[in-house]
Design brief:
- The protein has helices at 10-24, 26-38, 42-46, 75-87, 98-102, 113-127, 135-148, 151-158, 163-170, 174-183; strands spanning 53-54, 57-61, 68-72.
- With 186 residues, the protein is mainly α.
- A three-stranded antiparallel beta sheet has the order 1-2-3, with no helix packed on it.
- Helix 1 (10-24) packs across helix 6.
- This is Site-specific integrase.
- Keywords: DNA integration, DNA recombination.
- It holds the Pfam family Phage_integrase.
- Residues 2-182 form the Tyr recombinase domain.
- InterPro entries: DNA_brk_join_enz (IPR011010), Integrase-like_cat_sf (IPR013762), Integrase_catalytic (IPR002104), Tyrosine_recombinase_XerCD (IPR050090).
Length: 186
């Protein structure tokens, strides 16, 4: 499995969402758009229940780390979530599998990581980019770092404990750090 990277330009971000909607299904585009705005690991993103959303906040316990994620929802995330809640008022999960609804006597389940991964890979191949389930989280971290140059803020958002891990995760290379040193003259 190839390592995926952050998407580093707005046009590609928009194109990924568009292609997911038309090549796969609108639900995959919703995963992309909401995932970009929440910066959660895919397992946590897919496990979100509507009951985890309180007004403008999402409160969940991360499955990998056990840390509490208390995320204020931005306008884009709120709009997508409100539309999903209105469209599927009986759903338990934000990204509930439609297949489970067709099976009687089976409790509702979220869509699978595998389904999302396959959809993202399909679109990634079409765009000739390494796109995967971590791309949303990496992209959010990359854009926050580019706008603030504050690795501490990015670490806090991603709930990382190491600067080095965070820099590698969001795809900040030594060349980019070198450019920052050259361009900033005091």
């Amino acid at each position: 499995m190839a390592e995926v990277q952050a998407i580093k330009d707005d046009d590609t971000i928009r194109m990924v969402g568009h292609l997911l909607s038309i090549r796969c299904n609108p639900q995959m585009a919703d995963v992309w758009h909401i995932g970009l705005n929440l910066a959660l690991r895919i397992s946590d993103l897919l496990s979100i229940r509507f009951e985890d959303i309180h007004d403008d906040r999402l409160i969940i316990r991360e499955s990998k780390t056990g840390k509490l994620a208390n995320i204020q929802l931005n306008t884009i995330a709120q709009q997508h979530i409100a539309r999903l809640r209105e469209k599927h008022p009986d759903h338990i999960y934000l990204f509930q599998s439609h297949r489970c609804q067709q099976l009687k006597n089976k409790p509702p389940q979220p869509i699978t990581r595998r389904a999302v991964s396959m959809a993202f890979q399909q679109v990634g191949q079409e765009l000739n980019i390494a796109l995967g389930t971590h791309s949303m989280r990496k992209t959010r971290g990359y854009f926050l770092y580019q706008s603030t140059k504050d690795i501490g803020r990015v670490m806090k958002m991603l709930r990382h404990t190491s600067e080095g891990v965070t820099l590698r995760y969001i795809g900040i290379t030594q060349d980019e750090v070198d450019k920052d040193f050259v361009s900033l003259e005091l």
